[in-house]
């Protein structure tokens, strides 16, 4: 049985005539008669009582009629919804964004996307890069932004920013007037860092270890503005991307480049490799990549 059997059956029942049903469907009468006969043979009961050219439903026919109307209507609704998905009139996307990334790069992109595709519901989840990566990998999120590199065997991605991490200190700090600072010179400093859910936390700790010391972390937060305010209160130092540093008040902070080595803030949007991508998802990837051209470190 397929949906056409039910559609033809319903049309005959509504017209009480194979001839009128065939005319309504723009098919031949033998075709519709054969379809109904095949349906009766499959179910094992007669659906119509035939009296000359006029037909009427049997008891079994009335039972099927009530159920067939529901099934055909459901099929038609399903077809409409699928067409709307294909035409990007509806859909849902679950996107993970670390706090720094969401505030700095995505309000304009999200606003334009929602304006162009009002039927697509964006569900935004704020979390650190490590959490975003885990949730995209498990399918909890459709896509999200992480600190690259991504695991190439698990994710596809595009990158949209690649810039330097800078040292942020109080104006009275001994390193405040330096033109650059080596990582090894940060030994003994009081570090203000992001929580461990943020990939940048581990990157900074790893670089400190490579420079020969373990950082003295006095405070962890998920908000860059809180970390910067702690620096302004002369509680410690922090390390932030150039994009964030550009928003800091030059009178309250000193921004110093890090060298030996430089530390990169390389971001990318990731999604699961070889997983099904909805029409909305494909368009989001295309649209957001177009709106987020790659930024490179300042010279």
From TrEMBL:
Keywords: DNA-binding, Transcription, Transcription regulation. It comes from the Bacteria. The keyword Cell inner membrane does not apply. InterPro entries: HTH-type_LysR_regulators, LysR_HTH_N, LysR_subst-bd, WH-like_DNA-bd_sf, WH_DNA-bd_sf. The keyword Transcription regulation applies. Residues 1-58 form the HTH lysR-type domain. Belongs to the LysR transcriptional regulatory family. This is LysR family transcriptional regulator. The lineage of its organism: Bacteria, Bacillati, Bacillota, Bacilli, Bacillales.
């Amino acid at each position: 049985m397929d949906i056409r059997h039910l559609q033809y059956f319903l049309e005959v029942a509504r017209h009480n005539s194979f001839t009128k049903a065939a005319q309504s469907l723009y098919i031949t009468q033998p075709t519709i008669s054969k379809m109904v006969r095949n349906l009766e043979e499959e179910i094992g009961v007669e659906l119509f009582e035939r009296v000359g050219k006029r037909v009427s439903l049997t008891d079994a026919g009335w039972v099927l009629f009530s159920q067939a109307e529901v099934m055909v209507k459901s099929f038609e609704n399903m077809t409409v919804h699928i067409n709307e998905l294909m035409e990007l009139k509806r859909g849902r996307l679950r996107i993970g964004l670390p706090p720094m990334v969401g505030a700095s790069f995505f309000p304009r992109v999200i606003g334009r996307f929602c304006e162009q595709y009002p039927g697509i519901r964006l569900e935004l989840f704020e979390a650190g890069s490590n959490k975003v990566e885990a949730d995209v990998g498990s399918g909890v999120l459709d896509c999200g932004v992480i600190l690259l590199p991504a695991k190439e065997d698990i994710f596809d991605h595009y990158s949209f920013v690649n810039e330097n991490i800078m040292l942020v200190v109080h104006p009275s700090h001994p390193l405040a007037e330096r033109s650059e600072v080596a990582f090894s010179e940060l030994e003994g400093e009081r570090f203000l860092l992001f929580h461990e859910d943020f990939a940048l936390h581990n990157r900074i700790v790893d670089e400190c270890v490579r420079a020969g010391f373990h950082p003295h972390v006095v405070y962890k937060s998920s908000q860059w503005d809180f970390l910067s305010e702690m620096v302004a209160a002369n509680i410690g130092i922090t390390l932030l991307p150039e994009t964030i540093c550009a928003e800091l008040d030059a009178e309250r902070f000193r921004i110093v480049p890090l060298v030996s080595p430089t530390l990169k803030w390389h971001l990318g949007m990731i999604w699961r490799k070889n997983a099904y991508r909805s029409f909305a998802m494909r368009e989001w990837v295309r649209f957001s990549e177009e709106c987020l051209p790659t930024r490179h470190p300042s010279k």
